[in-house]
Amino acid sequence: MNARVYLHPIALASGPQVEAGNHGPGAIRLAGTMVYASRFALVVREGGDVTHRRVFGVSEAAEALAEPGGDLAAEAERQWSNLQLVHAPLKLGDRVVRLDQPQIMGVLNVTPDSFSDGGEFHEKPEAGRAHASAMLEAGAAIIDIGGESTRPGAQAAWEGDEIARIGPAVEYCAGMGAAISVDTRRAGVLEAALDQGAHMANDVSALRYDPRMAEMIADANCPVVLMHAPGAGDDLHEGGQYDDVVSEVFDMLKDNRQQAIEAGIAEERIVIDPGIGFGKSLADNLALLNALPLFHALGSPLLLGVSRKRMIGALSNEEAANERLGGSIAMAVKGMDAGVHLLRVHDVAETVQARNVWRGLRDAALTDFSQLPAL
How confident is the model at residue 235 (pLDDT cuts 50, 70, 90)? Predict the structure, then answer.
């Protein structure tokens, strides 16, 4: 079996000066965000076994990255560079979404069977328009419009129904000047949405469901989110059994990303989503959330979508989806602490407030010289 390398940031710092010392900078800026990493674990896995592990700090990086030798060392070097990659802003129509702080993507589901809102905006354009407007006013950088429920057990939508649901929502959001993402895995739906004013694809199948999707995105030159889900057919949740969920999700997203690039999609237009809740147990989801910093090693901005999901209820008295705000904010802050660039959420105003407070703390940490260690 082929050996694979994983470069985990395992100790995060509030600023670069916290770990500074006689040997130079003690932390790197993680993926152009307001998060810094000071300690790392270089792991080599072959089959189901860990064959090499080294924990190191910034000053030891050159030696540690070379240790596996050959192609593995070269891959470790690539991942080290990716961890420090500053990502370009997303250009979405007339809007530019900078990725140097967490940005909020507001969810607008226009399905009849959404788990989060029970079809509140299905065939109700005035309600949908008001909701989209409120999210934009609250600080959403992007509106993500979905016309197919992807919850466990949901029936796959017919393409014509999905187009009919999404079309009016795209039109009224475009009329507001919004940056618009379309949550779809079908090329026909994306094509119609782009013609109506959408700017970005959010493909929950990572381009595996519809063979036309990659070519269409490459031709349109639009950004795309590649999300991990184990199933490539109608049931995205099918086949969710893992020996090591973190490395397996990382490997699959790495392969999906490379296939997208080979299909002509610009590398800087790819966003990665680990797919929390899609074909994963509670333990799998928690492992992925705790390993989020690793995914920066793929070299693309990260999106996290965990708002109102079932795992929050599983951890807290099985509250209904509309009663999971506290857990959703906790997960959003977890993502911010890991350097996630985009947070896909239902409760925009509350998440923006949490982000603004989080950013204030980070700004203060950058100028708090009381944290400088004695030399």
Answer: confident
For the stretch 296-316, pLDDT in tens is 999 999 999 999 999 999 999
Other C-beta atoms within 10 Å of 360: how many? 10
- 344 flagged as catalytic: yes
Can you say whether residue 124 is alpha, beta or left, with left for phi > 0 and alpha for psi between -120 and 50 degrees?
Answer: beta
H-run or E-run covering 186: none
Nearest to 200 by CA among 214, 218, 181, 213: 181
| Whether pLDDT at 193 is above 90 | yes
Dump the DSSP string for 223-265: -EEEE--S--SS-TTTT---SSHHHHHHHHHHHHHHHHHHTT-
CB 233 within 8 A of CB 185: no
Torsional sign, CA 327, 333, 338, 343: positive
pTM: 0.93
Cα dist from 361 to 325, 329, 345, 366, whole Å: 22, 16, 22, 9
- 4 in active site: no
Work out the number of other CB atoms within 10 angstroms of the CB of residue 253.
Answer: 22
Q: Which sign, positive or negative, has the C-alpha torsion 344, 345, 346, 349?
A: negative
Instruction: Give me the mean pLDDT over the 343-351 stretch.
Output: 98
Indicate whether 15 pLDDT > 90. no
In the predicted model, what is the mean pLDDT of residues 260-280? 97
> How far apart are alpha carbons 3 and 228 in whole angstroms?
21
pLDDT of amino acid 152:
72
- Residues with Cβ within 8 Å of residue 44, at least 6 apart in sequence: 3, 4, 5, 6, 50, 51, 52, 53, 68, 72
Q: 54 forms bridges with which residues in the sheet?
A: 42
Catalytic residue selected from 309, 324, 355, 362: 309
Per annotation, catalytic residue among 129, 344, 355, 362: 344
Give the Cα separation of 263 and 255 in Å (integer).
12
